[in-house]
Amino acid sequence: MRVIEKHTPYFKVLETLQKSKDCALCVLEKEAVHSYFEAFLYENVNDPGTRDALRESHGYCPFHAHHIAGFHDTLALSILYKDQALLAASFLEKAASHRNILGEWTHHPMCPACRQTVQIRHHYVGILVSGMDEPEMKEAFLKYFHHCLNHFLMVLEGLHDEGLKRELAGRMRERLTGLAGRLEQYCQDCQKNASGETFDSPHRLAWKEALEISTGQKGVFEPLL
Ligand SMILES: [Zn+2]
Ligand SMILES: [Zn+2]
Question: Is residue 216 within 8 Å of residue 150, measured between CB atoms?
Answer without folding.
Answer: yes
